[in-house]
Amino acid sequence: MEPAPDARVLVDRARAAQSSWGSRGVAERVATLEQLPQLLLGGIDCLADAIAAENGKPRAEALAHELVPAIALARHHLGAAVAALGPSRITSPTAPYRSAVRMHRPYGVVLAIAPWNLPFLIPFSQVLPALLAGNAVILKPSELTPRVAALLVEVIAACDLPADVLQLAVGDGALGAELVAAQPDRVLFTGSVGTGRTVMAAAARFPIPVGLELGGVDAAIVLEDADLEFTTSAVAWGATFNGGQACCSIERVLVHEDLHDAFLVRLRDKLQRIDIRRDLAPAIDERQRGTWQRHVEAARADGLTVSGGEPLPDRRYAPTVISGDGITNATVWQEETFGPVVAVTGFGGDDQAVALHNDTEYGLTASIFSADVARARALAQRLNAGSVAVNDVAATMYSTPELPWGGIGRSGFGRSHGVDALLDAAWVQVIDAPRGPAFGPKRPWWYPYGPELEDAMRALGAAVATARPATRLRGYARAGHLLLSMLGRQPKL
Ligand code: NAD
To answer: N or C: which end of the chain has fewer CB within 10 A?
Structure first.
C-alpha cells in the first residue's frame, strides 16, 4: 500500500485546484457534474457489492439506504444548486438608492471526515454540496471502509472533475487530526460525540468553522391509539437495520401503558423471527460488538429484563429488547449502543412522554406512532429532535433528499441534505452598490453632525417602527426631505 500523503501536501494541492474550480459559475459546476446520477446508476451493482463486502450490510440495504438515496440526492442538488447558490438581489426601503446582491462564496478547501456505517451515502452527502458550491474537497473516510470511499471518488472524478478538486485521504484518526491541523477552510465531521469534540477543539485553534453530525439515542413514541401490528414492525426494523449501527436507529421506545405489555410481546416475537443470516448486518468489528455486550450486561446487572442479548456466529448479535423498572437510568437508555438493542418503557400521558423523550442530551431523530396524525404533529413540536417522523421510522427521512438532516445538543449542528446542505457549503457575501448616479458630494449623515440629522433620524425611526403603510410613507418622505435639504447646505468635510 502506498504511504499516506502528507496532510499539508493534500491541503496545498486542494487549494491550488480550488481557485479555478471556485471561479467557475455554479451553473458550470452543475454542468460538469450533470452525469453523476447516470454514472451512479450504471455502477449501482458494483457499488452495492463493494458496500456489502466491506461494511457487511445486506446488499438490499446498500441499495435502499445508500445508493438509490445517493442518486436521488445528486438529482436534487444538481437541480437546486443554481437557485440556492446563485446571486440574489436584496432590496431595503431604508436604502432605496442602493441595490445589494447576496453571493454564496466557497470556503476554499473543505475537509470531510466520515464514519463507516453508511460508507457511501454519508461521505457523498458531505462531498457533493461542497463541490457544487465551488470548494475543493479532501475526503477522509473511515479507516474501516476505504474501498467504498475510493469508488465514490472514482465515480465523481469520472465527471471530468479537474485534478485535485476531490482527493481521497485514506488513514485512521491520526491522519484526520493531521488534516485538521493542516488548516483546511472548513471541516465537516460525521461520527461519534467524543471524536466530534476532539475535531471541534482542534479546529477552534485557528478557528476553522465546523459542521458536526454526531450520535443519538433516538426514540419511538407509541401513543395509545397506535396500530400495534404496524408499530411493532416499524420498531423491529428501525432498531435493527444495518445491525442497529445507524445514528438514527431506534434505541429507546416509549409506549403508552395501555399498550405496553402487548407491545413488548409482539416486538420480541418479531425480533426473534428476523432471518439473521440474510437480513441482519453483523457488527463492523469485535470492538463494536463488545460495546453492545457491555451495555446488555450492565442492564442484566441492574436487574432489567433482557430478551436476546447474546453474541452469535459471524460477528452477529441476537436482536435484543430490554425492559423493566428503572430502565431510564440504565446505560442502554442514556448512552448510544449503536447495535440491535432496544430499551422499552411505559408512559401515562403525553406530557410524561415528552419529558422522558427530552431527558437526554442527544437530539437527532424521533418517531411517533398514532392514529391521530394531527395530535402526533403537535406532539412532535415539543420534542428536542432534528427530524421527527409520524407513523414511520425517522431514519427513512435520511433517504429523502429534500429534507434537511441534523441534530441539536450532543447530536451536533449544521444540516446536510436539502437546500440547507447547499447553503451550508458556502459563506454569504453581500455586495451593495448605488442604483444610479451619485446625488450629492457626500452622504448627509457623514460629518459634521447637527440637529437636522437628528430630526431626520427621528423621522426615519418613526417610518421603520410602524406597520402602517401610510405612516411609514410619511416618515420616509419627511426623512428624505430633511436629508436631501441638508446636502446643499453642509460644508464640505
Ligand atoms: P468515529 O468518531 O470513531 O470516527 C469517525 C471518523 O473520524 C473516522 O473517519 C475516524 O478515522 C475519524 N477520526 C477519529 N479520530 C479523529 C481525530 N482525532 N481527528 C480527526 N478525525 C478523527 O465514529 P465511527 O465509529 O466511524 O461512526 C459511528 C458514530 O457516528 C456513531 O456515534 C454514530 O451515531 C455517528 N453517526 C452520526 C450520523 C449523523 O448523521 N448524525 C451519521 C452516521 C454516524
So the answer is: N
